[in-house]
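Blinded run. Sample ID left blank on purpose so nobody reads anything into the name before looking at the predicted structure. Input follows.
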Amino acid sequence: MLLQILKSKIHRVQVTEANLEYVGSITIDQDMMDAVNIYAGERVQIVDNTNGARIETYVIPGKRGSGCICINGAAAHLVHVGDTVIIMAYALMTPEETKAFKPAIVYPVNNKL
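Blinded prediction complete.
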């Protein structure tokens, strides 16, 4: 049996851009991605603490050190500039693997690590 376990979390970061005309996804500062082992194209869940919206999409790397958190495409109708969000990625693991695993979590301040 495989379980979906929290692998990566960027906790309470502010949305800096919302681009309705983009094809889709979320753009995340590459430094933040590296800090929590999130990869380009990886599926993530976004929870908007400001309005309760929950969406899933994939990641596009943003400029290093920019603090960029950009919601792209249709999700820009639900998540807006200035909203506080939590970004999470999950991994499939056996129950045995979960015993030693620790998720990578960051708590950015002003969108900086």
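Unblinding after everyone has recorded impressions. The mean pLDDT is 97.
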